[in-house]
Amino acid sequence: MKAFTWFMAFPLLVALSACGGEVEEKRSESDDEPVIWRSPVKVAEGDAERGPWRMNESEFHYVDDPAVAAGRDGETLIAWVDNRAQTIFLQRFDAEGDAILAEPVAVSDSPDVFSWLPRMATPDGGDTILVAWEEILFTGGSHGGEILVARSEDGGESFAEPVNLSWTTGGAGKGRQSSERWDNGSLDLVVEGDRVWVAWTEYEGDLRLARSMDGGRRFRDAIHISGSGDQPTRGPALALLDDGRVVLAWTYGEKEDANVQLAVSSDDGESFELLGPALQRAGYADAPRLAVDSQGTLHLVFAEGEQNPGQAAGLVYARAGDDLSFSEGRTILEPTGAGQAYAGFPQLLTHESNLIVTWEILDWQSRLSLGLGLMHSGDSGDSFSRPLLVAGTGTPDGGFGGGLQGLLMRKADMGPDGRLVIGHSHFIPDTRSEVLLLRGRVE
Fold it and tell me: E-strand spans in 71-128?
């Protein structure tokens, strides 16, 4: 396949089978592979049927949209969507990859309405769990979408009734690139103790943020940060600095030279100061991700293409000083040529001096994911390893990597012990869909 030429130039990982195997740990044939992977865990499996769009009557029969969080004692929490059941489910796995909950627990409470693309956080490592997602409620306006949050205080055994944060007709959770193209899942969640922040964008253009000071039980009214009908926002990313400031990044659609924008709050999110572009660059910046390392340094990665919607994109990395001014960004993955697979929708993770960047390897024609790429830095971003394919994410049997409703996800996390956990989905048309949990550790 022509699209694979993007990464065939690099020595690749030997991908583990999607169903796992007898080998408990496996490293690449490459001597410089930075991650040792354990056998994938199959979390969920379903059909692979996607009929025409008929709002909440659509026959979407597949599993997709994983979100993960690294818990304590080697545990991993993973949430995903079962579109046939129109429900977000959650399961916990122990350090050996065995399920902890007797059955997956329903997080969303609306089996007649699609619930998509969750975000998850656990401030205490597993007892308290917050999940935010996009609910396809049609309450007027051109696009259905609300942002809901649910809280568990018993390790996911049960969830309180979801809270609607948005109450809008603007189509919350949509990240618009043009009138004909947008990504669902345009939201983010960050939690510290009882402080909770949720940011999202709307199809109609606005970027909004809601906050809770009591652990997500009640939320203040959402505030408008940026965006309009003529300048739609997309891809919000949140980070919490060591001094308590909240940083918010995003980009714009319908703008071929959009840069990553920054705003910062020093009052727990009651108000934000707009800082302008993080970097001034000529390309189209998309899907920014922020991470704060153990030294308190703020890191940024985003996809950059020559034009909206960013095909032929590569990846740009930068880090900020104490004043939140970023060093000159540098391209850590070069853009590709026409007809070749390209990079998009990165994830950024930190642990001590380690940075992990993953991204979707996107087919030029279909814009579907062919797998996940990965690069590692062991020196806080001074240098990065060569790009490699994440074990277990290669597309089996002519399928692709899920993300049918959008690839703006939070599907990777690193624990305080340096564990790397990734949720990944596969869609093999008319055959099967599956959600996998991938677990590794940095060498």
Answer: 76-82, 87-93, 105-106, 115-121
